[in-house]
Amino acid sequence: MEKLSKSAKKIKTVFSSITQRSLFHLIRNELIYNFGFENAIKIAEAIATSVVEIFKNYTPDVRKLKPFEVLYPAIDREEKAGYAKKIKDTRQKICILRLYTEEELEELSYGKSLTEILPERIYRIAKEAYEQGCVLIQPDLMILTGASLTSIRKGIKKWEEKNPDKLIPLRGSIHDMGGTITHKKIIINYHLRGYLTSEIAKLTNHRPENVDRYIDDFERVLLCVKDGMEIRRIMFYTGLSEHLIKEYIEIIKEEKVLENQNEKDIINDDTSNS
């Protein structure tokens, strides 16, 4: 490395003190002098670095926002769902969402109602969030669209009925939450039709490893059902919950995976007796 001249060294010394007047150093010193990190400076610096990154994420350049765009705090797409986990305990990210697109405004100007465009608007907003590493929940859609919870649920149902082979990438389906088996059914349906994991992941807005998990669970349950196992034995061999096994059995029945009538009878008996 080229040696600095004496004058350059002086300039470096003068301005090095200026570079230390940053948000990082403010947080670092706050931790060290006011929160007991005087003997853990490296930890204080690591925390300060993390806080600065969070601050940058929450304060993007608003001058780059276009009309009808908003900054919105959403749940991190990589957050793992947990029993009784509260939203305040989940990782969050900021995303930029469009309240309306030019096309949606044009449709309204031609006489369509807000209710008519709501289903497609729900899908579009949810997909925008997902593509930025976030997932939304129904209350988020209420805030972003101004629609009631009842209207949001009706809009979701209407969109799913119109697009039976696709999913709205909301937290419930992405993180496998809630009582619906719609996303599992769609994924398994693609699998049975010969689609590759990468294709299914793209079509359903799921991560490839999650798609593989659904397929693997389904195939294990299917193998057990073919062998005539009762649900309790399937639970033992697969490690899956009774509720989840019944969901996969329901898919097996609906998709008519098993052609043998006796095997169908076994499924019906298992479901009713458990």
Supply the key terms.
extended; 3 strands; mainly alpha; 61% helix; three-stranded antiparallel beta sheet; 274 residues; 3 domains
Question: What would you say this structure looks like, in words?
Answer:
This protein has 274 residues and is mostly helical. It folds into three domains: 17-50, no CATH class; 62-164, no CATH class; 182-273, no CATH class. The protein is 61% helix and 6% strand. It has 14 helices and three strands. It has helices spanning 6-19, 23-34, 41-58, 102-109, 114-131, 138-145, 149-162, 171-174, 182-192, 197-204, 208-226, 231-238, 242-254, 261-273; strands at residues 69-76, 92-98, 134-135. Strands 2-1-3 form a three-stranded antiparallel sheet, covered by helices on one side. Helix 5 packs across helix 7. It is extended, with a radius of gyration of 26 Å. Residues 268-274 have low confidence and may be disordered.
In summary, what is this structure?
By secondary structure, this protein is mainly alpha-helical. The protein is built from 14 helices and 3 strands. A 3-stranded antiparallel beta sheet has the order 2-1-3, covered by helices on one side.
Report the uncertain regions. Answer: 268-274
DSSP helix fraction: 55-70%
Averaged pLDDT: 82
Number of domains: 3
Portion in strands: 5-15%
Largest sheet: 3 strands, antiparallel
Based on Cα principal axes, name the global outline. Answer: extended
Number of strands: 3
Tally of helical segments? 14
Alpha-carbon Rg, integer:
26 Å
SS-based class: mainly alpha
* Cα-to-Cα separation, first versus last residue: 74 Å
| Helix-strand sequence | HHHEEHHEHHHHHHHHH
Give the strand line-up of the largest sheet. 2-1-3
